[in-house]
Specification:
The protein is mainly alpha-helical and 149 residues long. It has helices spanning 10-21, 26-37, 45-57, 76-93, 103-114, 128-138; strands at residues 24-25, 61-66, 69-74. It has a single domain (10-138), classed as Winged helix-like DNA-binding domain superfamily/Winged helix DNA-binding domain (Arc Repressor Mutant, subunit A, Orthogonal Bundle). Helix 1 crosses helix 3 and helix 1 packs across helix 4 (76-93).
């Protein structure tokens, strides 16, 4: 049996974060899930839509029908619930949700662009460590393990 990607209760939290980021309809939610968590996770209507319906039933999101589809938005209760639990999911999945203007969004974009090259790039040619050091120096920070604080 394949191992589940999301732990109990995580998929609704992710869906809540995606809808908080911007209003979305079901297909957009599934596409964003695939982009963020693929190829390790492939969303299915059989798991996504029931979770969306449950969020709506709990009053955490609300749907608005237009153009033959329902677009979902978070409610105040949904924003509060997300704020209370969002960080734990980021730590486990490595994906920060709902942070469109942060460095996490830039990293997610970088990761998505490089994903198709996985296994075809010489690790010695990747300059991530140097780039991280340059970014740290912009802010006077250092996470180098050899640095004593």
């Amino acid at each position: 049996m394949p191992r589940r990607f999301f732990r109990h209760g995580e998929l609704p939290l992710v869906l809540l974060a995606l809808v908080a980021e911007q209003p979305r309809h079901g297909y957009e939610i599934m596409s964003e899930l695939a982009r963020l968590f693929g190829p390790g996770y492939r969303p299915s209507p059989g798991s996504v839509y029931p979770a969306v319906e449950a969020l709506e039933a709990e009053g955490l999101i609300e749907g608005e029908v237009g153009d033959g589809r329902t677009t979902y938005r978070t409610t105040a209760a949904g924003e509060q619930a997300l704020g209370a639990r969002g960080d734990a999911l980021e730590l486990r999945t490595g994906t920060r949700l709902g942070a469109g203007d942060s460095i996490y969004a830039a990293f997610a974009s970088f990761k998505a662009r490089l994903a198709p090259l996985s296994g075809r790039v010489d690790p010695q040619a990747v300059v991530l460590e140097r780039a991280a050091g340059e970014i740290e120096s912009l802010n006077g920070l250092s996470t180098n393990k050899e640095t004593k604080l």
